[in-house]
Amino acid sequence: MAFSDGFDCPHCETRLEVDTGSRMVAVTVGLIAATLAWWATRESTNILGFALPVLLSFLAFGIVSALMLTFVSRFRIAPAVVVLEPAPAHGGHGASAHDHAGGHH
Q: What is the per-residue pLDDT for 77?
């Protein structure tokens, strides 16, 4: 699911995608985890004290939101994909050196 917007159901072969509400829940919980991680490390006194809260917030958001999406996601039937056909070339011919790549005169 990380590299696509959906998948095909193995039983009925219908295209499914993750519901928008599931994504919103995962993002919200991830942002809460990131805020808590930043708040817990904001007063760090080590040599990387200025970058540690941002780094841990980033990691907390990524890990928590992915786990939430994995465990609580609901699926819906994906809308049909519209296939567009290329438009015919202007005047029925391709570009030539005299008509400046087929544009209008």
A: 77
Element (H, E) at 64: helix 52-72
**Cβ neighbours, 10 Å, residue 66:** 14
Look at residue 6 in the predicted model and tell me its pLDDT: 74
List, for residues 64-90, the tens digit of each pLDDT value: 999 998 888 877 777 777 778 887 776
* 8 residue type, one letter: D
Helix (H) or strand (E) holding 23: helix 20-41
Give the closest residue to 30 by CA, choosing from 80, 71, 84: 71
Cα separation, 83 vs 100, in Å, equals: 30
Encoded tokens for 11: 């039983």
Contact yes or no for 56/63 (Cβ under 8 A): no
Q: Against a cut of 0.85, is the pTM above it?
A: no
Q: For the chain, give every domain's residue range.
A: 19-75
